[in-house]
Design goal:
Number of strands: 5
CATH architecture: 2-Layer Sandwich
Order of helices and strands: EHHEEEEH
Radius of gyration: 13 Å
Largest sheet: 5 strands, mixed
Number of helices: 3
Shape: globular
Helix content: 25-40%
Structural class: alpha+beta
Number of domains: 1
């Protein structure tokens, strides 16, 4: 099980996205819980990104909602953590 760490950019994007799409908030929260358990679960559709976002990954959390993140090792605990970077529609975050 991996810990989720949010960035300031993710927090701002989350607030803005859920303000415009309040019905998706519950689905996003469910996706975040699923990411903690198994970030590579088939229903999340986790995939590597390329171009300007090379080295990052994204997963689905609804029809046109994506979460961009990285998987890194926490130096203090030597455990893998998920750094949440951005959330939004496909066109907006790519």
């Amino acid at each position: 099980m991996r810990e989720l760490i949010t960035t300031a950019k993710f927090n701002r994007a989350f607030r803005k996205f859920t303000r415009h799409n309040p019905k998706l908030q519950h689905q996003i929260e469910e996706t975040l819980r699923a990411m903690c358990i198994d970030v590579f679960a088939p229903h999340l559709g986790t995939h590597k990104l390329s171009g300007n976002l090379v080295g990052l990954r994204a997963c689905y959390c609804g029809y046109d909602c994506r979460i961009v993140f990285s998987i890194e090792e926490d130096a203090s605990t030597n455990q893998e953590v998920i750094i949440l970077i951005n959330i939004g529609t496909h066109d907006r975050i790519y």
